[in-house]
Amino acid sequence: MTKKDEARKLAAEACRDILWDENCENRRFWQRMKSVCLNASEEDFDNFINDMRDRKDFLELLGRLTWQMNWIIVFDKTFGIERDNT
Questions:
Q1: Could you tell me the pTM of the whole model?
Q2: Cβ distance 45 to 35 under 8 Å?
Q3: Burial of 18 by CB count in 10 Å (0-12 exposed, 13-18 middle, 19+ buried)?
Q4: How many angstroms separate the most distant Cα atoms in the chain?
């Protein structure tokens, strides 16, 4: 698994966690983001990210995703969870 694949898998996991929050705003965006991370081709993924940059709330969404991804990384390291990279 490449680093890009690992990052996309981690982003999809972060989207899943964000969607678990019953007060989640932009639910449709997070569902689409998760789907794109898991299923889109490299070109479609890049197009989605480029389109996302045009959103007014781009920095807020990027910050939320980054925060959640970092939380997963810290949690895994703290509790010695190994990721399956196959």
A1: 0.88
A2: no
A3: buried
A4: 38
